[in-house]
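Pilot study result, target chain (202 residues):
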Amino acid sequence: MRKLAGLQLILPIVIGLAFAGELAAQPAEPSAAGLWEKVEKGKPVGWFLVVDRNGAFEGAFAKLFLEPGDPPNPVCSKCADDRKDAPLLGMSFIRDMKRDGLKYENGNVLDPRDGKIYKAKMTLSPDGQTLTMRGYLGISLLGKDEVWTRLPDTELAQVDPAIIAKYLPAQAAAIKPPAGPAKAPAAPKKTTAPAPVPAPVR
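Predicted structure:
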């Protein structure tokens, strides 16, 4: 009878541990944080870096693909807030996105072409490889979608180090070269036989 009571006590523990192990084995839901590329007519037009700032997701221009005739360092001359006349490269243009699973809502997006700020939401694909950005006026129905594709983390090496330092300070610190010029390795000493000592003249 005691053995049976002991078995009844152990069984829920074993089932509980198995269930906990199954939960731990499930992959974490993908995040919108990362580097994204927008392509138009088969050509990249911009890279965007999305970061999680304590639960509020923000996006910045990480790389610009300028057309011939475009100014080399474009600024947001039509912006009316803190981004007025700021360089587009490295500028935060997506702000205050709140995550709800694969959806990111209640944020806003800046259109640097006219300086207007629109309400915005983002939807991440279940595999985490595409991000649909929707900017709209008033209601979501009156808006426009853009679909971006995730770039591998290795492409961060092509992003301006100042942008990485601003938005990913921990990562920037990890890849920062050591301070001071690196010393060149000392040349190996030649191992030649000593020259013979001349005999004294008598």
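One observation from the pilot: The helical segments are 2-25, 161-167, 169-175. A full batch analysis is planned for the follow-on phase.
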